[in-house]
Predict the 3D structure of the following.
Amino acid sequence: MRRGGLVLLGCALIWMLAAGSGSAITGHGDSNLFSLNTSWLSATPDEVLPRAHALLPCRPNPFNPTTTIVYELPQPSRVHLAIYDARGRRVRLLQEGQPMLAGRHEISWDGRGNGGQPVAGGVYLCRLQADGFQGMIRMVLVK
């Protein structure tokens, strides 16, 4: 572990020197302790936000009775998120055109239909629509 830390510190020093910042690492007397000035690590919003729309695999999958659906938006978008059965019938509307901020979002589905009734075990599809993007994932509800 210690060896990897030295490699990381060495790489950071090489990168800082190449970027023209020689004052990022400072020593503390003769004690061989160093501190790293991480102010140059501050991220800009473009680096933190997703670069593209994405509908990620739900977790857990298979599930009973609840699963978490994760999606990413590169910019604020109106989101439509629905669950369909294997025959293509919509069983649950989770989000209907709600404006959402850019970033990663999570929403849970409790295995219930629009009326609140539990749905049967089987294969379901989750469909995300946002700004012309359409994504679909497969989910399995085990009863």
In short: Residues 2-42 form one domain. Residues 2-18 form the longest helix (17 residues). The beta strands are 25-27, 34-36, 54-59, 67-73, 77-85, 90-100, 103-109, 122-130, 133-141. The mean pLDDT is 78.
